[in-house]
Amino acid sequence: MKHLNHAFPENSLIGTCLMLAHSTFYDALPANAEHREPIAPADIPQGKRAPREPLMQRLLNAIDTWFHKQRVREREAYLAKAKDIFELEYRLRQLDRHG
Fold first, then answer.
1. In this predicted model, what pLDDT tens digit does every residue of 8-29 receive, in sequence order?
2. How far apart are CA 1 and CA 99, in angstroms?
């Protein structure tokens, strides 16, 4: 990573935020594309595929995902009925305690 040149001292809040953002997004910048590591192997071996999950396992995973989404929708609908921030916090505490 190159040294970051900016007008803020490195030990200030803004300077620290700039350094953090630079280190986080350095590889994503188009100008730094040549420094990126490859995401996938260049050649995929022929004839070898990743093993698939058994049909029953995929079915159980799909059902579990569906039930999870239903629980999330119910929870969000319950929280959306709050009239103000205090009631929302109360409802969140109730959900944490009693599920």
1. 666 777 777 777 777 777 666 6
2. 46
Q: Given this model, what pLDDT does residue 93 score?
A: 94
Per-domain residue ranges of the chain: 1-40, 55-98
Mean pLDDT (the chain) is: 79
H-assigned helices in the chain: 13-25, 55-80, 85-98
How many whole angstroms separate alpha carbon 20 and alpha carbon 3? 12
Whether 73 has a pLDDT exceeding 70, the answer reads: yes
Spatial CA neighbour of 26 closest among 5, 9, 2: 2
Residue 15: Cβ within 10 Å count = 15
- 23-62 burial code (b ≥16 CB/10 A, e <16): eeeeeeeeeeeeeeeeeeeeeeeeeeeeeeeeeeeeeeee
